[in-house]
Amino acid sequence: MPELNWQKSTFSGGPQGECVCIAAVPDGTIRLRESDEPRVILGAEPKALASLLSHVKVNLTHTR
Question: Rounded to 5 degrees, what are φ and ψ at 15?
């Protein structure tokens, strides 16, 4: 696998510096990792990740 260009989420950086990072892979998939566990990498298809994020946003809006 080629070296990935990780980008930190704009919503990251809490008091302890926790960060979520994302990288695009040439095969069209997306990789995610947390700064405190950089060797643990999750993979997702763009449509599946978009669906998850949409679901999270809707549920966060309803719980506030």
Answer: -55, -35
